[in-house]
Amino acid sequence: MRLLFIRHGDPDYANDCLNAIGLSEAKALSMLCPQLGLGTCYASPLGRAQETAAIALGRAVEGAHGVAAAVDCGDILTTLDWLREFPALVDVNDTPLLHDAYYQNLLPDGTCKPRIVWDMYPSYYMEHEAYSDYDDWRTTLVAHCSNMITVYEYVTSSFDALLAEHGYVRDGRHYRVEGESTETLTFFCHFGITCVLLSHLWNVSPFVPLQSFCMPTSSVTELFTEERQKGYANFRATRIGDTSHLTMAGLRTQRLPHSALFTEVYSDFSQRHD
Fold it and tell me: Is residue 119 part of a domain?
């Protein structure tokens, strides 16, 4: 079996759609898709992923101002609610011990906005080894002060149910092959949810890929099953965050877009620090 995780194009988060850069990225992706062999396609319900999928699958129409509008893809694309961006949030207002872990985005009343769980400072993550452990991350302060465990279990169990439909059944920490398959499943989704699903496939803490990987907008991540033992499947990556389609389309400079990264050097305040 082959799994493709395709991140949405550069987003307008406020309106949950693609911005002009994202539209260009999705069009470049659409040129690659015939060679990718997408197989059975699934998508997050969020607008930025739906638009990316519609353009990539050739199911979008271009408006008067060059803005692509998605049309119905129901015959070739299945929307899965659990594939939305990993929604777990942490509230640090009542937990001073976490004030050093996250950028403090203050509201007018002086309280902090809830943060997505993986946007912690690397200095905090690196000095608290439990976050890197497959089991121990569930005992951490972030897990205790958020809904992360509940959301993680919901997402991964839903993912396992889908894989089981295609012959790969979760059995402890491995996948039992009940029906060999060379089909491809493609997921148009998001950075966070992709990292969570990879962590589950590989039996590592979700914080490891969340803190270590960069998957730029419209990038492609590819995994294959490896069945070296009869009835036993392992998932191995052949590429993570691949944006070669953007390079070929002349949309990639030497540096990665900082919608995918935080600041490269601290002194550059034109890049993301939050």
Answer: no
Total-model pTM: 0.91
User: CA–CA separation, 157 vs 159, rounded Å?
Assistant: 5
DSSP per-residue string spanning 129-151: GGGGSTTGGGGSHHHHTBSHHHH
Strand 2-7 to 184-189 pairing: parallel
Residue 274 domain flag: no
Q: 122-153: per-residue pLDDT in tens?
A: 999 999 999 999 999 999 999 999 999 999 99
Q: DSSP letter string over the chain?
A: -EEEEEEPPSEETTTTEE-HHHHHHHHHHHHHHHHH---EEEE-SSHHHHHHHHHHTT-EEE-TTS-EEE---TTTEEE-GGGSS---EE--TT-GGGTTTB---B-TTSPBPPEETT-B-HHHHHH-GGGGSTTGGGGSHHHHTBSHHHHHHHHHHHHHHHHHHTTEEEETTEEEESS----EEEEEE-HHHHHHHHHHHHTS-THHHHHH----TT-EEEEEEEEEETTEEEEEEEEEEE-HHHHHTT---SSPPTTSS--SSTT-TTS---
Residue 74 confidence (pLDDT): 63
Whether 152 is in a domain gets the answer no
In a domain, 64, yes or no: yes
* CATH, residue 208: 3.40.50.1240
126 φ, ψ to 5°? -70, -30
